Amino acid sequence: MNAVAKVNDDSTEIELDGASTPPLTGPTPVEPQPEAVAPPKKRRSRRFLLMVALPLALLVGGGYFWWTGGRYEETENANLRQARVTISSEAAGRIVEVDVADNTLVHKGDVLFVVDPEPYRIALAQADASLAAAKMQVEQLRAAYSQAVAQEQVAAGELDYAQAQFQRSTDLAKKGISATSSLDEARRDLEKAQNERAVARQGMESARAGLLGNPDIETDQHPAVLAAQAARDKAAYNLAQTTVRAPADGIVSQASSFKIGQVVAAGTPLFSLVETGDTWVEANFKETQLTHLRPGQSADITLDTYPGHVFHGTVESIGAGTGAEFSLLPAQNATGNWVKVTQRIPVRLKLDTRDAADIVSSGMSAKVTVDTGYSRSLGGLFGKAVAAQ
């Protein structure tokens, strides 16, 4: 049997399995309602503070953003750069010693490799011998000049004697004491003495010319000696170039295939040296960001390799043109298909020496923030507001 329940306002009837129960009479009980409690005053004050603080924070934040807007210029289009030197040998020959390997840290003056110096030592010995021969030649010229001077003096004495004999023979011939043949012989001896004097004088002048017209010239100042000395210096220089040293502090790169026994030609690039002492950052700013950017301004630099570490630098220079101006095929805007695109201009930033000493990799990505020191004025803000009205 189903249970049926009927509920009325004044009575309640319940039937269970066909049996009914007497209705319940009496008023329906009413639950007591809680009394209204007034909210505390502290909650109202907190709500008021929140309502006031939020607009105030927005106003302060917006004012600070407006005030500092344009002061800090930032770009992530930046890379770290280090000077790279191509190492080559000025002396041709076979490599007999290699003191470096790929990615080796070297200091200025360290030996990188050595070319076989024996042929250059032989060339230096030959140059020394040539120098000694040149000095000996100068001494021979000086002796030849002295000999020519002596011969000229002898010829001058013979000339004086021949002139005296000719004059005597002439006087005797006039008096009729001497024969004509004696006068002719005296005349011939005089002519011979004059010719010998001329030859001796020419020999002396030739010897003087060999000494540059200065018989007292120093041996080391003679052109032949100077030429031999220059040849000797060149041979010594070539010998010194067989030992190749590091031009600066840096890291050897691309030297994995450089081995002993390799034959190198003069001037052929062998490997590279990345200088760790010359480090800078090349940042490509948009042209609209360069309004207040000037050389000498400070900058904060963050490298992706060292997250969380801020490097310090200074704006060193601003590029003379955009990247498009120096590209191999610059864009031609006169074709009629011109679209205005914001250009980027390279800016060079010099890293502080202490910060740059810890960086050993060139080409790393960087983020640059430059403090231009520019700030907007309230007068400019009010002026814009008045102009807008």
Summarize the structure.
The chain is of the alpha+beta class and 389 residues long. The protein contains 6 helices and 15 strands.
Tell me about this structure:
This protein is of the alpha+beta class. The chain has helices at 41-68, 118-175, 180-210, 223-240, 353-356, 378-388, and strands spanning 4-7, 12-16, 19-20, 72-88, 93-98, 105-106, 111-115, 243-245, 250-253, 263-264, 269-286, 298-303, 310-318, 344-351, 365-371. A hairpin with a 2-residue loop joins strand 2 and strand 3. The radius of gyration is 54 Å and the shape is elongated. It starts with a strand and ends with a helix. The relative contact order is 0.16. The model is unreliable at 1-26 and 379-389 (pLDDT under 50).
Order of helices and strands: EEEHEEEEHHHEEEEEEEHEH
Arithmetic mean of pLDDT: 80
Count every beta strand, where a strand is a DSSP E run of 2 or more residues: 15
Helix amount: 25-40%
Based on helices, strands and strand pairing, what is the structural class?
alpha+beta
Uncertain parts = 1-26, 379-389
Biggest beta-sheet profile: 6 strands, antiparallel, barrel
Q: Percent of residues in beta strands? A: 25-35%
**Arrangement of strands in the largest sheet:** 4-11-14-13-12-15
How many helices? The count is 6
Characterize the overall form. Answer: elongated
Report the end-to-end length measured between terminal Cα atoms.
87 Å
Query: Radius of gyration, Cα only, in angstroms?
Result: 54 Å
